[in-house]
Predict the 3D structure of the following.
Amino acid sequence: MEGAEGPWPSAGKATGPIPGTVRPEADVFPRFDEPLFEAVRRAHPTKIALQVPAGLVRNAHDLAAELRRAVDRPVVVVSRACFGACDFPAPDEVPGADALVVLGHSPIPNVPRWAPTYFVEMRYPPGEAEPLAELLVQQDLPKRLGLVASVQHLDLVEPLVRAAADRGFELRTGAGDRRLAYAAQALGCNYTGAESIADSVAGFLFLGTGRFHPIGLALAVDRRVWSLDPLQGTLEPPLDRASIVADRFRTIARAMDAKRFGVLVSSFAGQHRGGLASALVEKARRRGREAEILVFARLDPADLVGRDLDAYVNTACPRIAIDDAALYPRPMLTPPEFLSAIGELPLEPYRFDTYH
């Protein structure tokens, strides 16, 4: 169903964002607005489940109260941390809820949902692009760069492209596959927009905060990656991709002699790859190894302690194996890394585990 403000949901389909809702300012409490309330009212829900990212749990109950007053329906808060649009709550986590409001994330278009779901994107105002573009000059970056951004800073992409062009830089953005809602967008599991332009640029600029996305981007594209933080106004030196990849090669080497693998499968709809897991089990057995599937919702390293297994293959969020490797008692591989470990794929070039 199409409304004046944008695409509204139908049960079982991924939904579009609520444009203009929750524009965070520094030190300002985020608030919902009327487009969201009107969209939810039209769905006539019995009960609404609200999911917020870890950084907003302190505000979750005030937001729930605001939503409850505006829509006049019961609202329950999902207590577990939310890391992305891929781990929205399952029906048994929110009994009786028949609508979801997800704060801070954009929809993943090819992930089906069991109830009407409203994504409230926390877009920062674009701010000043000129000082950021000047940093490219000061640090003598290559003139042709790919540009990738987290969803919170997508509104800054076009102003930055223009400001950089005024200084002789060409910033290119690419359209990704069906898992990405926007051009130039980065997900921790998908950088296909960047991959589509990698051969035409000398490096990449990540627009956003933190190291999570830049590390994934550096693994997905064999190019230098600089991080441009629009909140701090800083430009970080390029990541040491060679060191990150060398760590992954060492993990693969530790698993090459493994006889028994545990293949991890998430029950979250946005991370579930049961078909891939079954295929990996068969490949392991054809290579004379043993492999069993382990199913989980939120993976806890303690759940893997004491098992008679030599290594693990993670088919859920690919960053579990990469970012949290030190937390696990045995080598934790991504599917491409596993195929290298058992001799199905050559070790080089390094292959990022991209969700499609």
